[in-house]
## 1
Amino acid sequence: MPAAIEAHELTKTFKGGVRALDGVTFSVEAGTVFGLLGPNGAGKTTVVRILTTILRSDDGRALVLGHDVAKEPALVRTLFGLAGQYAAVDENLTGRENLRMIGRLNHMASKEVASRATQLLEDFQLSDAADRPLKTYSGGMRRRLDLAAALVARPSVLFLDEPTTGLDPQSRIGLWGVIEQLVAGGTTVLLTTQYLEEADRLASQIAVVDHGRLIAEGSPTQLKASLGATVLDIGLGDAAVAARAATVLHGVGGKDVHVTGGDLELPVNGGPGVAMEALRLLDQAGIVPTRFTLREPSLDDVFLSLTGKKAEGAEGASEVATA
Amino acid sequence: MIDELRWAVRDTVALTVRNLLNYVRVPEALFFSSVQPIMFVLLFRYVFGGAIHPTGYSYVDYLVPGIFVQTVAFGAVATSIGLAEDLQKGIIERFRALPMARSAVLAGRTVADLVRNVVVALLITAVGYAVGFRIQTNVLAFVAGIAVILLFAYGLSWGFALIGLSAPNSETAQVMSFPLLFPLTFASSAFVQVDTMPGWLQGFAAHQPFTIAVDAARALMLGGPTATLVWQTLAWTAGIIVVLAPLAVRRYRLST
């Protein structure tokens, strides 16, 4: 089966010499969800903007359903839907007017535009708010409308650029449900996110991006296995104690111990068992932790284990990328 | 080709509707942008008017064609603010990713401003009548005068589109527009006769396009030779569009 989305060695350098992409290659199988995971400024949005014909890459090639985005941009624009992190809808227009406008600009027949708008408003539980200007919508409602707008022309490929960034947890979970339904219907989705939890829940394949490069790729299970299923997070108050604790805990759980100031993190596979052993060892050494928790790995942990350093928001690059 | 043109027109209409809805949906902006030209009429009619005595006209008659041009020119700033805002908010990103005509974003903006100017012209006509303005020619010539001004304003919109696309944000777009607008509007025949200005200013004021457009409208509304002035205004309008529209389109393509 041919890939729905392909990127080959994409590079992009912005004015001022910021290298946003440094040879990005991946492919997305039709009907699956591909997650691009990375911190702010990693280059995720730049990838999406190139794939959606908004921006041209300096080098490399990108295909959507087999069509080159640089050579056939007009055709490619008829193939995908895009929902961006800025919820690019008109806030003085009502939800219905926004969807109709997008439908017309997608060159749909006038009759279909109206019925499609009504149907999407219903599907996204926005019927009650359909004829209210968007500025009265909550953040979650705006994102839902933005997503609905991306779906007006029934695209088989969907780009979601940080669809839940800035949303409260409840709205985020609601939006996840909506995206899951779309995928069940056979849509191919490329999703960018800063949240490991989001990529884990939605994507069948994840690529981790940092400084314009893919630094890891695999299924969520593979990525988490390489990392450890949980993270043991121990607070020790000061750096000297933390360093001593790191020596004591060396080898526990089979992974490297990371020390940041007075804190210590240990990726582990056998959570509770390892935690008990760690407590015992600390007790024997006479060390009393100020905090002792087991938690799900975060994006920071993925970065820590892949690069040996915390994920840093390359603010300069992200500003250029969104300018 | 024909199909492409048809889509370009449809896309332009879709965005024109969107831009007009935006004007109507912000009642405060709509109210104050209507109040402003009325204030200008009253200001010049009753505050400054007593001190200005144009030869051959009563001041209220002299004033109204000038107010028409001043109002549509000030209104054209909306084009630059609107485009700067769209760029800033990211809605233009979405437009770029849609299979729509590339030209429609700018065309939809300038056409929306043209439609708005028609409404503004009706408002000024009504207010002008209320304060004593009377057509000295005939209704047809008066309507022709308004048509000339509307075309001229449409040309200006492309210039302000260029400013809006070059500005980093909508506030700056507004600030960037006025240094251009003030000398063109006030150092013209819109409010006073050019021969009352100092010699060094007359050279500019007598030949710049605002004066020519105002004089054309004034001749059509109040009488006098019209042909040369109207042709000159249309030539300026065409020239502005031919030079600035491609620059604006280029700027739009590059502004990612």
## 2
Amino acid sequence: MKKQRLVMRTVILILLAAAVGYTLYANFTKDEVERVAKGKIAPDFVLTDLNGQKHRLSDYEGKGVFLNFWATWCKPCEREMPYMNNQYQNYKDQGVEIIAVNVAESDVAVKEFANRYQLQFPIVIDKDQQVMTAYGVNPLPITFLIDKNGEVVDVHRGEIPTEELLIELLEKIKP
Amino acid sequence: MNEVKCECGHVNPHGTILCEACGKVFEEQSNDDKKLLDMRYEGSARRSQTYNKTFIDKIWNFFSSVKVGVWLIVITLVASALGTVLPQEMYIPPVMPASEYYEDQYGWFGKLYYDLGFHNLYSSWWYLILVASIGVSLVICSLDRVIPLYRALKAQKVTRHDGFLKRQRVYGVTQLNNSEKPYDTIKERLKLKRYHIREEDGNLLAEKGRFSRWGPYVNHVGLIIFLIGCMLRFVPGMYVDQILWIREGETKVIPGTDSEYFLKNEKFTVEVYDKEKDKEVFNKALEKSGMVAKNYQSDVVLYKKKGETVAGEEAELEKVKDYSIQVNKPLKFEKFALYQVDYKLNELNKMSFKLINKETEKEFGSLTVDLYNPQTEYELEPGYSVNIISYFPDFQFGEDGKPMTKSRIPNNPAFVFEMFTPDKPEGERSFVAIRQNIEPFGDNEYKMAFNGIETKHVSALTVRKDLTLWTIGIGGAIFMIGVIQGSYWNHRRIWIRRKDGEVIVAAHTNKNWFGIKKELQVVLDGTGIEEPIDQSIDEKKVNEEKVG
């Protein structure tokens, strides 16, 4: 009788604790759930770059992809661009591709920006914000580090303040 | 721990105050004591305070206390109220980070408010734990009370211990030798009053409305289901609440639908009441308040994606339906509803310019720029053409004095044009913004003259999916059933005990004592059995006399 009572109480308390624990966990991850997070497979996309060439994420299987979302009006994005430009060729040779996704701006504005900074890496424009929605991007800038299997290894929110940090991030996805 | 065996033979759980079967008082004072019984939970062994040995028991007993439950509710109430003193983080304008905003707007109080985490109260861990603790307390309190109460009510015998009857609030003894006839009359009358009658050895227990005792517990079950409903909101896929800003003519993917549905905004309309056109009835009101909105409407087309495409790919869309979304008339599809929630009128969409000679003002053709996606080259009259070198949709001068854009929305478009004319084949540059025309070299022969704008309205829709509503609804309904069950019925019991030429009448109800006394009056009327008295009134009088 006594034993049974203890077992019953334990079971009920465990059930209640599980429900509370789950609610807390879900509450604190609710912003992440809809988004692409660490450990998930990066959603595939096809976007066209400034030269009219199509880039499909799944075509980069076997390579690391440094996927950066940005806009010309976003100051932190602007600041990290030169670092990316500096490292682009070096890491491309090592199998890491840098792709910059501009969020729904006009070709004119993006081209002008790319010319101003002499950007080498492919810049694709997400015209109708489908890719942005699929990746749950907000706010800019945000960078997804995708490994050779298409899995998101890390997500860097906000500016990449130093070139050292950029290199560190790029190293993570070297195949 | 030993169980308690009563002299009537019934075995009670440890901690019982009144025997479940006969009502004999176990604790301290003798059965002859004059004091009235505390009949809550039938004197059953609730929450067996004595099982306090293990860690589990300690937690259990903590939550089993009603006092703890009440405090949890009070603390939650106070915290909830504090959360409304200043606006929550999600409602502050995005002009500066929350950490600065509160201090800037509300001074030291704002800073304290922010530091204590009240700016994001309702999803803070401690607030959620408070609410969850109320839920836990609810479950454990209820279990600890409803089970012993059920046992006690089920085990009760017709023949109750004298001490139990004597210490009921309504109690009376009549000396009567031949009680057969009045007894039968009373029994018949009680039956007419819809009492359930049980008899044993010439004694009687009449009972009705026992199910009203379960009211509070039914109510709690409803509350718990309600809380589960709230919890379900956090489960992915159960709840979507997003905003979709969509320009006229634009087709956009609907967020939350896994890129399966697309929406096109054909037209957005705002209508206000018009004195001329609308009924005369409205005139007075309109005079008083001026502009009154009549209608906000988005005419939309819903599309479903055909086949598999990846994001960014032009999807093949299949039209599902046309619909006009108005306030409180959402577009519904599958489990989703799109509500009209906001709008922005006359957003710039296209801008026209004409190329003119500054001196002669002669025109050499015009061009129209799509502000969301401008072309770069425009051919005008033969020999004349214009290129856009730079474009700033939301123009302002940056800290470094260079033109820049604040956003991608064309709130204040500015351009750098390069004009090619037969006189100036190498091109002239000019910077053109609204009411501004800057020439970097100051000696242009031609200029781009403003030639009109085209605007579009933008509509904001709330995308809502809520699969938790039915759970919350069922919880609410059960909650109300419990309230009704507990408030509109009373659990009434009347005991009649015959012994040695005495007839004892005692009664108990969980509420509405006036009602049961009235009922007894009718039942006993003319039977020769005296109406029992309300001992609580008696007791009060005695106390008052003592004090006096």
